[in-house]
Design goal:
It is built from three helices and twelve strands; from the N terminus they run ββββαββααββββββ. By secondary structure, the protein is an alpha+beta fold. InterPro entries: CTDL_fold, Sulfatase_Mod_Factor_Kinase, SUMF_dom, SUMF_sf.
Amino acid sequence: MTDGMIELPGGAFLMGSDRFYPEEGPVVQVQVDAFTMDRYAVTNREFARFVADTGYVTVAERELDPADFPDGDITDVQPGSLVFTPTSGPVDLRNWRQWWHWVPGASWRHPHGPDSSIDELGDHPVVQIAFEDACAFAAWVGKRLPTEAEWEYAARGGLEGATFAWGEEANQRAEPFANTWQGRFPYLNTGARGWVGTAPVGSFPPNGYGLHEMTGNTWEWTADPWTERHQVPAAACTCGCSPQTRTEATGGHGASARRRVLKGGSHLCAPEYCFRYRPAARSAQTEDSATTHIGFRCAH
């Protein structure tokens, strides 16, 4: 199901938005060369083949290095990652720690903790993936991560300036265009097309370029370092897979590290909290962070 890439012609497009969040601006015209993009996000089945072939150990599975935590005690912190847990009712949406929790043993094999499994989720996008993990997979298949500009160009599907990858219609409808939160965040989700959490790749309609789930389902890593605003097109890009050290995703421990740009939003995005299932939307994430809603796809 997940074989194949889409050839994109390249060209000039208007990147960003001045209508929603400040980090999405300014709107700039960007020229993108022709490239190819994975039709779907990388799946659990594909990532499992990579691990079986290489013996790769993801960031979330590695023992913590005391050298990365000069100011903190890590004796009580075990390898793991961040897991989303719905609240029992309405909460203050300014405090994300009410629904995100560090769970020892959570990893791509066990996305929600050691008692969870991906045995029935082979066609779902792999999650609990840090930047270094995505880079390692991309190198194994002879590809790379897309730049932020390439990603947004691909997600727009040829719709210049449109709010969503499909146009202007809202996603709160009987048959949503994308896998986003349906209901009241973070405690009531009725599911998009029946899916609560990730959906198998290809479950939602493709955009104008034939790419599936470019918004919603999972956030996706790009190669670009984070900037608070879009850089002018002439600015030098220090893109690439050069991950730094492990950091404070463990709940406040550790040193800071470089952040990268995530694109696309996820199944946890809701209009009242995270209206980011749009091509222009972007989010900062430390390179060593892995969560239940971050995955990736490759470019070439």
